[in-house]
Amino acid sequence: MINNFKNYLRSKIINNKVDKEYLVEGLSQFDKPIYQVLNIPVQRCSELMKRAFRKELKNKPRNVPVNIWFLIQFGYKKCYKCNNILQLDKFHNRKDRWHNKNDNCLDCEKNRDRIEYYTEYNQNHKEKRRKYARQYQKDNPDKFNANNAKRRANKLQATPNCITKQQLIEIEDIYWQAKETGRILGEPFHVDHIHPLSKGGLHVPWNLQILTATENLKKSNKLEVI
Description:
Elements: H1 2-12, H2 20-27, H3 34-38, H4 42-53, H5 66-73, E1 76-78, E2 85-87, E3 91-93, E4 101-105, H6 106-111, H7 114-124, H8 126-139, H9 141-155, H10 165-185, E5 189-193, E6 208-212, H11 213-219
Helix pairs in contact: 1-2, 8-9, 9-10
């Protein structure tokens, strides 16, 4: 691939007065910026590229290195994870990159630790995640409350292992009924655990009842059916 890339670079050099092989060898290395590879000042390197390639660099984004630009035009890209130079179809598409490709190749994405990925993503997008969570809670109060109760029950080990998928659906349906009842009657309704989780109750359909918010707050964690 590198030899074909070098031939591609030779074909793009318009100015015959420059040392082609000197440029080609420098542009075929991707570990350092081109001016460091050629061991010349940045300004002189920029002038040299303009003389050598002229209009070939007209559409190149300003901050993109010349060798990376030509590598993409040649149909290849360097993976930031494994450092291999691969064809563009070995990368996922990504619209927010100037080359429309992901930074890492498909194999590296598959092998990447998903927990590490999402932890890093959440750390870098905290406000975006908070905004999404607030909007989700506003648009889906029944699902939000059901998931919140499920987390609380799991923490207290109040969800039995024998619970079926159908029973889990029934629990979600009860929270949906509470939301719809509140929407129709114009007042908030809660889903209450008849036998409170804090006193050994289970998070199962037959231990749930729909109460007005006032009734639920009044009942608190008492063991009673209203």
